[in-house]
Design brief:
- 2 copies of one chain form a homodimer.
- Chain A is an all-alpha fold.
- Chain A folds into 2 domains: about 50 residues, Arc Repressor Mutant, subunit A (Orthogonal Bundle); about 120 residues, Tetracycline Repressor, domain 2 (Orthogonal Bundle), CATH 1.10.357.
- In chain A, about 65% of the residues lie in helices and about 0% in strands.
- Chain A contains 11 helices and no strands.
- At the A-B interface, helix 6, helix 7, helix 9, helix 10 and helix 11 of A face helix 6, helix 7, helix 9, helix 10 and helix 11 of B.
- Chain A binds a DNA duplex through helix 3.
Amino acid sequence: MHHDAATLDAPAAVEASPKRRQMLDAARGLFLAQGYGAVSMDAVARTAGVSKATLYAHFASKAALFGMLMAEGCSQMLPPEENLFPAEVADLRPALEALGGRTLRFMLREDWLAIYRIAMAESVRFPELAHSFHANGPVRTLARTRDWIAQQQAAGKVRADAEPEVAAQHLMGLLRSTLFLRATLGLPPAAEGADIDRAVAGAVDTWLRAFAADPDR
Amino acid sequence: MHHDAATLDAPAAVEASPKRRQMLDAARGLFLAQGYGAVSMDAVARTAGVSKATLYAHFASKAALFGMLMAEGCSQMLPPEENLFPAEVADLRPALEALGGRTLRFMLREDWLAIYRIAMAESVRFPELAHSFHANGPVRTLARTRDWIAQQQAAGKVRADAEPEVAAQHLMGLLRSTLFLRATLGLPPAAEGADIDRAVAGAVDTWLRAFAADPDR
DNA sequence: GTCTATAGGCCGATAGAC
DNA sequence: GTCTATCGGCCTATAGAC
């Protein structure tokens, strides 16, 4: 197995060849659903409706195809920002619940879980994939959250002696504490909206007790 | 692929055939290091120093061998208890740091991570494995911790209006918040003793701020 | 660029001798 | 029980016609 998967961080200029998109789409679906090893190039070609030779004309190897896909996927592993990090808030709780809800829901999405599963499982064969996923997903989410917490700290909303980095990590940890492990293992039943809301509210509650400058109770 | 992996929770009466142990040991090492799909029965036989025919004489299929191994592994996914749950403590902090340190160190062990990786990656092909791992590992650890927290709550050490279940989940979440994600992805550098101690101290600090009955600061 | 057809190898699993 | 030898199949990857 030679790793000509190239750099995993460059989405690359994918021109608009329809067959190429068919192949990439088919491959992504199969890889995410079944993992790297369980997917054959035959299956990719069949699903995409092309011949294997065409597949190999576009992608030098199975590893290269996989690497290119994961690069695309990893660059989209951030939840939409929108108004998730408001500079000024009257109360920290609703802002944290919005941020936490969006973040946890994003991490419980099947495509996020699928990439996480594959990045973990293939971290030996494709260390670049694990690194790229981590750097493009969790690390960036954490950095944004840390900066926002520091901002709120400067505004007097967060305990002055807290470290924003730790506070951000603990917020993520609390959000992941209940439903995440089950979800990664694919255990039924899948979390529903009410479960997620409850988990987020609990995490925010604990976080505020530990990090809010002014305990509001 | 037929799943005659049988029940994953019964370690089964493995008699003391030396060759059988060689095969099981070889298979466990290979599966944990490389995952289910990447390991061939040829490799298992070669590593164990037996022929493939002998391997198949003992295990009906690759799936059966894998299932038997994971059943053994999953039944050992609890950290040693020792004096981790003392009924009466003067101060909650050192008890939590001992419990948290032992728990986090256990979850960062390469064999625990390897089983977690495989349970995740193969949760589609082997749903029983994911269930067994979860039930024998995280669920039991959480239950013990929850009961101990309830005990401490009754002793007046923990906030009276806290739910022990949530408090236990949040403790685990806080412990996993920093080093765990990196470790699951196999990202260097591996966590060292000092890193772990710092993570545990931070987690316990946040937990105590949120759940201690008597904030001692 | 895309196809059909196939090379060449490794895999899981088995037959049969001892 | 354990071995050697091998089967049939699927895999990645390629050759050659169009």
